[in-house]
Design a protein that fits this description.
The structure is a homodimer of 108-residue chains. Chain A is 53% helix and 17% strand. In chain A, strand 2 and strand 3 form a beta hairpin. The longest helix of chain A is centred in the C-terminal third of the chain and has 20 residues. The interface between A and B is medium-sized, with 35 and 35 residues.
Chain lengths: 108, 108
């Protein structure tokens, strides 16, 4: 059996992009400013990573006019949710392999 | 509370380097060829990522003479083991946050 690390895909595994997909899983959709603040990113850095995810078909971007301003909404596509699931499975397997999933603080 | 994705450190989180640290956790020490084959890397790619980990003090590299050949052994340092633990904790928290740790195939 191949090592689970081989099943990690950089498109999803990369730290910032994993954060984006995780927030979109929690929130189902989020606007640009929320993602930027939640993940402590600059506008440029977030834009760059969104472009990678959009190019790969993992997120959808929608611009909505609100009065004079434009608001950018993001949500994960079906492929994006599947890619996040695959990443979580590979990480879980990796954890199991190196001696178990660590407990969280406060767990008994 | 900050998002667990913010606690992921690229030095350890990057796919290949995470694979290296995971194999060294399983094996306690491994030689260059074993790592290269287990993670399906080229010599150049493995060397580059080992250099990053060594520079960060996370792995130790030792060259041993075996007859006419040199064999390169690697093991994680104490800091390397701690960094892998921190990565696993952050990933576990991220998983919990987005709806639980996925079960492995065959688990009930």
């Amino acid at each position: 059996m191949t090592h689970p690390a081989l099943r990690l895909d950089d498109t999803v595994h990369q730290r910032v992009r994993l954060g984006i997909l995780a927030v979109l899983r929690e929130a189902s959709r989020a606007d640009f400013a929320y993602l930027r603040d939640a993940l402590e990113l600059t506008d440029g850095n977030l834009s760059r990573h969104i472009a990678v995810l959009e190019e790969a078909g993992l997120v959808e971007v929608e611009k909505a006019f609100e009065g004079k301003r434009t608001r950018t909404w993001l949500q994960a596509t079906k492929a994006g949710r599947a890619a996040l699931d695959a990443e979580m499975k590979a990480m879980r397997e990796l954890m199991e392999r190196i001696g178990g999933v660590p407990r969280l603080a406060g767990e008994t």
